[in-house]
Amino acid sequence: QLRLVESGGGLVQPGGSLRLACATSGSTWASSAIGWFRQAPGKEREGIACITSGGSSRGYLDSVKGRFSISRDNAKRTVYLQMTNLTLEDTAVYYCAARRPGFGTCTNTGTLFGSWGRGTQVTVSS
């Protein structure tokens, strides 16, 4: 099981930007697809971005397309989520998650991810 640690959250004004990072440990990290999820107060968790194990394919929730970008640096064992033009609706706890080793394709189904970080809070407020 991979250990995942998110960082980069914080308070930002509407229209601002943040870059989240998800640092991993474990020798099998490179064979896993990595996803970013978020959960706002009173709402269900939703998958917002995913990147395949090789990094060649990415998927996004419609509401973040064109504003968020996911990338991975396998040498640093880190996945990034660049978020721009943030809105109040982006306020949530953001989690990164890894699919089990060998499962390198993307999905937005949280139950298919075997390892989760503890989350980082993103608050968009004026």
How is this structure best summarized?
The chain has strands at 3-7, 10-12, 18-25, 34-39, 46-51, 58-60, 68-73, 78-83, 92-99, 113-116, 120-124. It is mainly β and 126 residues long. Strands 2, 4, 5, 6, 9, 10 and 11 form a 7-stranded mixed β-sheet that branches. A 4-stranded antiparallel β-sheet has the order 1-3-8-7, with no helix packed on it.
Topology, please?
Elements: E1 3-7, E2 10-12, E3 18-25, E4 34-39, E5 46-51, E6 58-60, E7 68-73, E8 78-83, E9 92-99, E10 113-116, E11 120-124
Parallel strand pairs: 2-11
Antiparallel strand pairs: 1-3, 3-8, 4-5, 4-9, 5-6, 7-8, 9-10, 9-11
Features:
126 residues; mainly beta; seven-stranded mixed β-sheet; four-stranded antiparallel β-sheet; 11 strands
Can you describe this structure?
The protein is mainly β. The protein has strands spanning 3-7, 10-12, 18-25, 34-39, 46-51, 58-60, 68-73, 78-83, 92-99, 113-116, 120-124. Strands 2, 4, 5, 6, 9, 10 and 11 form a seven-stranded mixed sheet that branches. The protein has a four-stranded antiparallel sheet with strand order 1-3-8-7, with no helix packed on it. The radius of gyration is 13 Å and the shape is globular. The mean pLDDT is 94.
